[in-house]
Amino acid sequence: MNDRRIRSVVIVGGGTAGWMAAAALSRSLAGMGVRLRLIESARIDPIGVGEATVPPIMDFIRQLGIDEDDLVREIKATYKLGIGYRDWTCAGHFYFHPFGPAAPGMGNIPFQAYWLKMLLEGKAGRLEEYSIQAMAALRGRFARPVHAPNTPLNKLTYALHFDAGRFARYLRGYAEARGVLRTEGHVRHAALRGSDGFVDSVTLETGESVSADLFIDCSGFQGLLIEGALQTGYQDWNQWLPCDRAVIVHSERSAPPDPYTLVTARDAGWQWRIPLQHRDGNGYIYSGAFSEDDSARALLLGNIGGRPLSEPVALRFRPGRRKAAWNRNVVALGLAAGFLEPLEATSIHLIQRGIGMLLRFFPDRDFAAADVDRYNRIIESEFSRVRDFLLLHYSQTERVGPFWRHCRDIPLTEGLREKIELFRSHGRILREETELFPVLSWLSVMVGQNIIPHRYDPLVDALDPQRIQSRLDELRSAVKGCVEAMPPHWDFIQNTATSA
Ligand SMILES: Cc1cc2nc3c(=O)[nH]c(=O)nc-3n(C[C@H](O)[C@H](O)[C@H](O)COP(=O)(O)OP(=O)(O)OC[C@H]3O[C@@H](n4cnc5c(N)ncnc54)[C@H](O)[C@@H]3O)c2cc1C
Hints:
The chain is α+β, with helices and mostly antiparallel strands. The chain contains 15 helices and 21 strands. The radius of gyration is 23 Å and the shape is globular. It binds flavin-adenine dinucleotide. Flavin-adenine dinucleotide (FAD) binds next to helix 1, strand 2, strand 13 and helix 9.
């Protein structure tokens, strides 16, 4: 039979996306005789700002067989249990979006249904009190999950904050050790095959021409191959996602690092603080239609804890996605595939999903249309769900001022409108298949932003209210007890990861 196997893969770009792809492919394709090569330009630095992640990143790390303590030490990581939203719902308000599953149900009745009944009757505490992630984060504690059945410690869910440059370098070491050939070179041109318009080769500034069966475009916002060569097209989602600029600065740490990202709403967008072992990452994401760049820069510099460590860097982006992440023999990952915005730290996750799906539908040289189409539908759906979750944050606030008024007027997507209506009517939350954000995420953000249903699920009335009350009391005290037994986050890091 004719051998149609992929023999060579070229990855263009050595940022987070490029090295994540190189690391994952070097592991998954080991033994198949596929030549893997990564080309990165010394003239264009990686963007270097993706520093917060979501829990599935821990699966990525485990699947590569990387030692977590070693990684945390080398990339100066801290642990992340969720996101604290300050002044977001309205000035002076704070709520927490924790990672993790919701507390257990009672029979068929999910946690949110019985908690909501008691909340509406004034007999339940704040949502945060029933989440070990939320309470540990707010108390500055951290521990990894332990095998302690029927306790909240069993299901402790976390992600990382890390230094993006160090993360890429770590993965580079991993990939090179597994045979990935790295070329420092600037791609000038891509040549297409006359027969089918597939990318045949890329030509470097040195004149070297590099051909491959499959190209992975990790060249950042420009999308050198997916757009520059193949002109795939871009869907601009600015009509739903209002922010399109960022200013970023690193600063000295002014306190031991918190195990969560702090997000603070500002007049024309929002500011983040991501605490790392050696510094804080700070940024202000805003809408260019509502703020001048100079005032955004001044606002950021006026609101960081420690001394700035560098000059602030300004960036512009178009929230949206490439019309097809996989076109012919080019798969775009990372910023080349699209960028929504960093509020819920989903971009690195979308890279991870892109790699996972590429491996699931790994092609041969015929590039079956069914595989490519399905891949594109899955990626489109992932971007759309993240977009809807982000739009929930922007559209449902009580903040004053022109930017936030504009956000409230953004027409909701059909999917989000249904989600909000289902919740408003009886507190129901449905998680779509393979959706990144679990029920607790939707619940935390909706309740945190004052979407309180008027009625609870009628089936809760099948439960004895006394039993519900005791269950809630037990949950709250179990969470409290576990958090008290956890070490301070910074002590945990120092004990496990700061010395070799
Ligand atoms: C303000 C902001 C904040 C963000 N925060 C987060 C966050 O908290 N969490 C998160 O998950 N994501 C975040 N992201 C997204 C995250 O930064 C990216 O998803 C991630 O860094 C991947 O970038 P990349 O590798 O696709 O592109 P880049 O980092 O831009 O890398 C592009 C690579 O392509 C190479 N290249 C470009 N042109 C050529 C050429 N002609 N020849 C050869 N090589 C070339 C460059 O040298 C570079 O190596 C944020 C993004 C922004 C803008």
